[in-house]
Amino acid sequence: MTTAETLPASLRYLAVAGEIVQKIAATQGPAIDQAAQICADTIANDGMVFCWGGGHSRMSVEEMFPRIGSYPGFYPMVELALTFYTTFVGADGMTQSFFLERQERYADAILANYEFGPHDSMLCFSSTGINGLVIEMALQAKARGLPVMAVTSVAHADSTVSRHSSGVKLREVADVTIDNCTPPGDAVVDIPGLKYKVSPTSTIGATSVVNALKARTAELLVARGVEPIVLTSPHFADRPEEAEEQLQRVYKEFKRRKRMIFGRD
Fold this sequence. Notes:
The protein has twelve helices and seven strands. It is globular, with a radius of gyration of 19 Å. It has helices spanning 3-6, 9-27, 29-44, 58-64, 80-83, 94-100, 106-111, 132-143, 154-159, 170-173, 202-223, 240-261; strands spanning 49-53, 74-77, 121-126, 148-152, 176-179, 187-189, 198-200. The protein has one domain (3-230): 3-Layer(aba) Sandwich (Rossmann fold). Helix 2 (9-27) runs parallel beside helix 11 (202-223), helix 3 (29-44) packs across helix 11 (202-223) and helix 4 (58-64) runs parallel beside helix 11. The longest helix is centred in the last third of the chain and has 22 residues, at 202-223. The mean pLDDT is 94. It has a five-stranded parallel beta sheet with strand order 2-1-3-4-5. Strands 6-7 form a two-stranded antiparallel ribbon.
C-alpha cells in the first residue's frame, strides 16, 4: 500500500485538489490570458461579460460577480429553476433541474430577456460541457456575434457524449476553452468498502480559474487606464465610511451597465 493510500481521506482529497490547482497553473495560463483579453475588451468598451452557469456551476458565476474582490462588467445569469434545488425533492427539486438543463429551447426563453450589444461577450461554466441548455446558450451567443468562453472539464467531456441535438460539446463551440482540469466523474476519493467515489473537485477547479481570470482582467484594464470599481471587504477600509462609499460606487456602476442590457439606454 502506498503512502498516499494510508493517508486519511480528508488529506487525500486536499492533495488531489492541490494537484488540480497546480495543473491549471501549469497548463491553462495561455487560455486564461486569451479569455482575459476578451473580458478586458468587453468591460473597457462598456459591454458586459454575460456569465452563465446552471446546476452547481451557478457557484462559479457568483464567484465571478458579485463577490468580494470582484467588479462590475461581469453579469451573473442564474435561473432559480436550475439552481435552487437544496430541497432536493418536491418543489424546485433535483429531478426538475436535471430535466431543464437538458432542454435546448429553454435558452430561447432566457435570452429573450436581454439586449446584447456589439462589445458584449459570454462566459459559460459547465463541469461536463455536454448538456443541451449550456451548449445552446453558447451557440445562440455566437449567433448574436458574442465571443464565447467556456470553463469546463475537458477530460469529462472527452469521456462522455453530447446531449445536444447537434452532437457538439461546449468546448467545441467556445472560442476559448479553459480546462478546469478535473477528472471524469468529478468525485475523486475512494473509500474502502464504498462503491462510489466521494468529494468532487470541479468547484475548486472552476473557482480557481474564475479568480485567476478576474485578476488578469483587472490587470489588463488598469494597463489601459480603466480602473475597475472593486467590491471590497467592509472590514478593512481605511475609514469606516469608505467601504459604504465604495459599495455605492459599485451599485451605481452595475446599475449603469445593467440599464443597457435591458434596453433602457
